[in-house]
Structure formats: C-alpha cells, structure tokens
C-alpha cells in the first residue's frame, strides 16, 4: 500500500469518526416548564424514542460502512485521481448522513414521516452508488488492486454492492407506504454488510 | 498486534476524542438583556454551575474510559467480528454520553433532577455492560489475548468490570433519592478506574 | 520528511477532516406545524436547495484544498517557524469556511444574496493568499523543499497559486452582480485545483 | 519515546484539533427580516466583529498551545499516571475554551464586557497552571525526560511557564478595567509562546 493510500484511508477514517459522533448533536434536551418534575421529564424522554431509534440505527449503519470501507482499502495497491473522486463522493454522502437522520428523528412520529423516511432511504441509495463507483474505479480489471487478490473476492464484493442497489430503492418505495419499514430495511442491511467478507482465506472454506 | 487491531484502536480513539470535545457545545452562553452589566453576567455564569459540574465530571469519566480502553487493547493479539460488535456497542454509548450530560446540566437544579440523574447513571450502567462484553469476547479463554498475558491480569480486570455493574446500578437507584448523589457516584468511580492496572509488572509487586 | 513535518501534516489533516464534516451542522431540519404532511415536508426540503448546493460546493472545495495541501507537503524536507505561521493562517481560514457557507445557504435565495456570496468568495481570496504564503515560505529558493524536486514543479505550482488570486477576486466582484455566479466560480475552480500536479514524473510527459 | 507516549500525544492532538475547529460553531449567521438586502446584511456582518476577533485571537492561542504541547512532548522519555492527570487537566481546559470564547464574542461590545473578558482570561490562568503542572510532573528532577536533555532547556521552559502565571493574572485584573485590554494581553502572549524554544541546539547559540 502506498503512502498516498494510507493517507487517504486515514483522512476517510477521520470523516467517518466525526460524522458518527456528530449524530448525537441532533438529539435535543427537552425544554419543559421550570416546575416540571421527574414524571414530566420521564414522559418527555419517552417521546424522544424516534431520536434514539434513528441515532442507534444510523450509528450501526455508519459503523458498518466504515468496516466495509476498510475492507475495500485492504485490497488496494494504490489510488489514482479517478478513485479519489469516487471516494470523495462517498465521503460527501457520509458527512451528509446526520441531516437525514435528524429529519427522520423529527418526523418519524408525525404525518410527514413517509417523506422523511424516503429522504433518509434515498441517502442510502446514494451511498450504495458511491460504493459501486469505488468498485468500478478500483476493482474493474484489477486496476488499483494489489497482486494476489483473486477474481473470486472481487466478484463477491461486486455482487454484494450491486445487490444493495435494488434493496435500497425498495426501501425508498416502502417508506412511502410505511415510514418505519423503509428505515427498518436500511438499518437491517447493516447485518448483511457486516457479514461481507473481503478476504480470500474465508472465501476458500466457503467454496469448499 | 495486527494492522486490523491498530486500526480499530485508532478509530475508537477518534470517537473518544470527538465525544469528549463535543461536551462543551452543550454549555450555552447566557442570553441577557442588552443593558445587562458585569454583575448580571457574573450572576448568570454562577447559575451555570450544573453545566460546569456535569462537564468536568463527564470529561474525567470519558478520559478514564479512554485510558482503560487503551489498557485493554494493549492485551490484544488480534480482533474478530464478535469483538468488533462489542467494541461498536461501547462506541455507540460513548458517542451517546453528551446527551445525558446536557440533560443533567439542564435539570440538576430543577424538580426533574432525579429523572435526569437516573438517566445519566443508566448510561453508565450500559457502558459498564459494554466493557464486560469486551472482556467476554476477548479475554475469556484468552481468545484474542496475546501470549504472555497472565491469568492474574485478566482475572483482575474481570473482577473490576463485574464489580462496576452493581455500583452503577446503585447509582441509578441513589439518583432517585438524591440527584447529586447518583452523579457523584458515577463521577467518583473514575478514580477507581484510573487505578485499574492492565500490566503484569505492577501485579507482581502488589502480590508480593 | 522529519517527524515534525509528519506531525504538522497530521494535525492539519485533522482540522481539514473536522471542518469538512461540520458543514452539515449548518443545514437545519425544517420546523413545520405538527399536522404538516408528506407534501408539506417535501416542499420544505425543496426550499433548502441553497443549503444543499452550498454544502456540496464547499465540500468539493475543501476536499480539493486538502488534496493540494498534501501534494505540497510531499515536496517538503522539513518545516520551520515561518512556515508554521503560514500553515496556521491557512488552517485559520479553513476552520472559518463553515461560517460563510452557512451565510450563503441562508441568503442565496433572498435579497442579501450578493453580500453573502461576496463574503463567501472573499474567504476564498484569503485561502488563496494563504497558499501563496505557503509557497513563499517553503518553495522560494527551495528553502524547505527536499532534494530532487525540480524547479519546473515548483514553478508550475507557483503559477497556479498566483493565477488563482485574480480569479477569486473576480469571483468577489461577480458576486455583487450575480450571487450564484460568484459562488459558481469558486466552486468550479476545484476542478482546476484537482488537476494541479505536484509530481515530477507527470511533468516530464507533459513537457515531452 | 514509548508507544504509550506516542498514543497520549496523538489523543491530545485530536482534542486540540477538534477544539480549534469547534470555535467557528459559535459564530452565528445573522437573522434578518426576509426583505433585508445587501446593505443590511453587510451591516449585520460588521456588527459581528467581536465574534471574528475572538475567533481569530483564540485560534492563534490554541494553535500556539498545541505547538508548545508538542515541543514539551518531544522532551519526554515516557509518561506515568501522575503526568496523565496533569495532561488530562490541560485537555479539560482546552476543550473548555470554546465556551469563554463564545461568551467574549457575545458580550465584548456590551455592558457585561468586563465580566466576559475576565472569565476568558481566567481560563488562560487555568491553562497556564496546567502547563506548570506538566513541568512539575515530568521535568522536575528529569523524572520523565529522555537522556540528553540539558538542565538549561528545562530551566528555560520552567521560567517561561512560571512567568506566564502573573501575566495572565494581570490580564484578569486588566479585564475589569478594560475588557479589550484583558483579551489583548492573552492573545498577544501567543507571540511569546510561539518563540519559546524546546531544543538544545538553539539554546547554545543563544548562550554563546
């Protein structure tokens, strides 16, 4: 891995770490009248459930995206300009995530929930496109891939990334029918991504 | 220590550093009428004491958690998926901490103080559970531990983590009786955690 | 590259990564009446277009500045105090960027758009000056440049940095005539900066 | 330098970088009536001068504190628990700085300016105490200092840190007389700190 690659990875890590930590700033302390007691505060905290849910679900998603980002970088021999643009597009969307998360938290228990959830899911469609662009600029014809990485691994990753696209689009559609369902699909997918394997040695037992 | 381990530790460090620095954003500059003079501003700053107290106490707690996190990582030979989930759960709670801190600061001198303090302490119960999960996924049967780390060290850490659980639960209960007491127990414990030793060479003189 | 140089670069990277991630905090979730439905929320999101545009344009600009910053650091043998001041001045302006971005987002579709856009563009004039100061303190007479870097490379960088100055000044002027044009010039320039080459090996084919 | 020392330094760097970048969040975009034009927005931006001044002055101060922090760490052979507490106290105050900065920005052109400025300067007294504690825990009797660092260097640093204390106390007092003067003293001192030399080779020509 070149010095340049290490550096781009470190910068990306920083952006992931900051974006994931900024999520909490969107949960606001309830403003209650001065005389409000423990019961009122407890009730007010319970009404924050959409914020807690959006926070936890999105945290899991970004963390899994970071793990996948690292898995992908491990395959790289070097980076070039075209790849830097694709990676930059991914980082743009990662830093954007706190906004749809806050939107979802604010509207999940209100009439505008479908629009908020669809917007949230649409952001994930964009992120999926960015991962597919990473693959296209780096892994196609093994362009930037280090020697020794098998076709099998690259093909497995390509399929997973491609498969993600229709599922996230489905989540956008589902959000219009049921806001919670759209969010649920996006959040559930992190279990799928967490299971994606970027290493050859795991591929072999699986193929055996 | 593998490249993977170093990387997870660096990412976790970033999250700790950002979470600890975001705490200050919850202390708001007092809004006073334009003609308010030095005396009024001084008085307004004094009424911010719950914010300053919550900031300082939580800063000490997160800093000590970071020191313990590093101490634990020093024992590791490698990481695996199960450990990554446990560590991810810990990071989720660390990034969450600014919210209960802001809540405590807003309600510590008001009738809802008990609920706010109990919520704050409950977050620490969760963090303690996360540390116990780190131990279970990494240290049980020396699964991910590097050679040469003695049973004695792992056992000492296990006991400290387990002991933390009832104390933090006690803090939640105490918070319902006296808000300041709950917060005080959580904050005082960082002296206990700061004293926890992750190294063998210290264990020997202690046993001598 | 000395340990000192690596350290200054790492600190600068952190500042770039944080500034680029803070941009999103300036996009606020729309506050609508509780009964507002999907159509109203959709409409409210569409009125946020100046925020989305300012976010995306500025993200691209800061990312390209970071790439250029790294390209420049790759030429360095060491750093000295004078260079640290120039670099500190650049970081001051980079951390400042979220403010003019938020200003532009708030006023781009309102009567004050020209003033907001001119202020935004003026920040980029300042950043351009900072890059020229980096060149002057480091590259003039090869002061802090590592051996083997050709005059041709340094001269190419100098010209690009100098050329940026009148263009950004032009953007300030253009902003008073058409707010979007000023912002457009600043944002379009990142394609120019992304194409600036800091390496000798690319220079040779270009010269052949 | 031990792995532990490198790690504490990296964590501290992260806290410095985040604190310095968060400063900008305290400058708020002016809220004007929708019909406000360029002239009104220009005027509103000019009334933000205390924010810009506090931002620039504090940025320079934190950047210089970071440079000094690194200079000091370069002298270290290792760290121990006592030093970690002193360093943690310093970091607590560094993360605190955005609050007094926002306070100063909000009140510098209002009747409460003296109180705000004195509070700001008092934070710097605290930071100076923290640097003196760093010296006491690390440099006294060369406790944690690496071999080859001369008494002369340590003595020079000790004197500079000690000298800072009465000057910052003076700034607090001066702030009660003239708010701008207190802030000015604190900000001007960064030129003094930027000139403090942590290396032996510079000491010798100075002594020659």
In short:
Chain A has 208 residues and is mostly helical. The first copy, chain A, has helices at residues 3-22, 38-46, 49-73, 81-96, 98-107, 113-138, 151-177, 179-194, 200-207. Chains in contact: A-B, A-C, B-D, C-D.
Give a description of the structure:
Four copies of one chain form a homotetramer. With 208 residues, chain A is mostly helical. Chain A has one domain (12-26, 38-199). Helices cover 75% and strands 0% of the residues of chain A. Chain A contains nine helices and no strands. Chain A has helices at 3-22, 38-46, 49-73, 81-96, 98-107, 113-138, 151-177, 179-194, 200-207. In chain A, α1 (3-22) runs parallel beside α4 and α6 runs antiparallel to α7. Chain A is elongated. Chain A starts with a helix and ends with a helix. The relative contact order of chain A is 0.13. Chains in contact: A-B, A-C, B-D, C-D. Chain A binds chain B through residues 13-14, 16-18, 20-25, 27, 29, 32, 34-42, 45, 55-56, 59-60, 63, 66-67, 70, 194, and chain B through 7, 10-11, 14-15, 18-19, 22, 25-26, 81, 84-85, 88, 91-92, 95-96, 98-99, 102-103, 106-107, 110-116, 119, 176.
């Amino acid at each position: 891995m070149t010095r340049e690659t290490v550096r781009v990875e470190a910068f990306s890590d920083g952006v992931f770490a900051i974006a994931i930590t900024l999520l909490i700033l969107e949960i606001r302390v309830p403003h209650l009248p001065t005389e409000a007691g423990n019961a009122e505060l407890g009730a007010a905290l319970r009404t924050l459930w959409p914020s807690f849910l959006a926070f936890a679900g999105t945290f899991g998603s970004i963390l899994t995206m970071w793990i996948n980002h690292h898995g992908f970088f491990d395959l790289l021999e070097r980076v070039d300009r075209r790849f830097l643009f694709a990676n930059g597009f991914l980082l743009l969307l990662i830093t954007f995530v706190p906004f749809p998360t806050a939107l979802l938290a604010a509207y999940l228990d209100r009439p505008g929930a479908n629009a908020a959830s669809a917007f949230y899911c649409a952001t994930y469609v964009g992120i999926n496109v960015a991962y597919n662009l990473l693959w296209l600029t780096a892994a196609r014809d093994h362009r930037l891939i280090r020697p020794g990485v098998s076709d099998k691994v690259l093909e497995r990753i390509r399929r997973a990334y491609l498969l993600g696209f229709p599922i996230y689009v489905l989540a956008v559609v589902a959000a219009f029918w049921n806001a919670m369902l759209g969010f649920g699909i996006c959040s559930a997918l992190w279990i799928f991504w967490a299971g994606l394997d970027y290493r050859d040695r795991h591929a072999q037992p699986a193929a055996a």
